[in-house]
Specification:
The protein has 171 residues and is α+β, with helices and mostly antiparallel strands. Helices cover 46% and strands 13% of the residues. It contains six helices and four strands, in the order αβαααβααββ.
């Protein structure tokens, strides 16, 4: 992988070649311009990565919950509805670390595609919506009402951050 690069000139780095587990993610085939199609393609990539490491399912390495999660990640939709792409890769990394007893290298080929804008926009909207749902489910306003604040004066906002940018939604 590093042959031809300056890092390859040093013997100590060549000796490390192949001694650590690697998760390689390439987004080169993600060309979608809307969030849903972009997310679908990313889920397909994650599914393919899980299939690449399907040997983890052999024997009794995975406990019941882990085995179930692994199977769901390999299904056609490529992910469970209640997990996000980042945590799915993190889970695989953790399993590989446990299996090999070594740190896992994750290589990302981000590739310059229009999907980045579509994915971030959709992810932001989804994050704000999840925050507003949480406000309702946890009934955060109850404490304010108990303290004497009128329900009509309470405003509920969901926030999503990306660096210095923020998206705010009102519930």
């Amino acid at each position: 992988m590093f042959e031809g690069l300056s890092i390859w000139n040093e013997e100590k780095y060549r000796q490390l070649q192949g001694t650590y587990p690697v998760i390689f993610l390439s987004f080169a085939r993600v060309k979608e311009k809307d969030y849903e199609n972009c997310r679908s393609k990313l889920c397909e990539i994650v599914r393919d990565v899980y299939r690449e490491f399907s040997f983890l399912r052999e024997g009794s390495f995975l406990d019941g919950r882990e085995g179930e999660f692994f199977e769901q990640m390999m299904m056609e939709d490529g992910r469970r509805k209640d997990s996000d792409i980042t945590s799915s890769i993190h889970q695989l990394s953790w399993l590989l670390h446990r299996y090999y007893g070594k740190k896992v290298i994750i290589l990302l080929d981000e590739y310059d595609t229009p999907m980045q804008e579509a994915y971030v926009k959709g992810y932001w909207e989804e994050t704000v919506a999840a925050a507003l749902i949480q406000i309702e489910e946890k009934q955060y306003e109850k404490e304010l009402i108990i303290r004497g604040i009128e329900k009509e004066r309470i405003r509920k906002y969901g926030f999503a951050f990306l660096g210095k940018e923020v998206l705010i939604g009102e519930g």
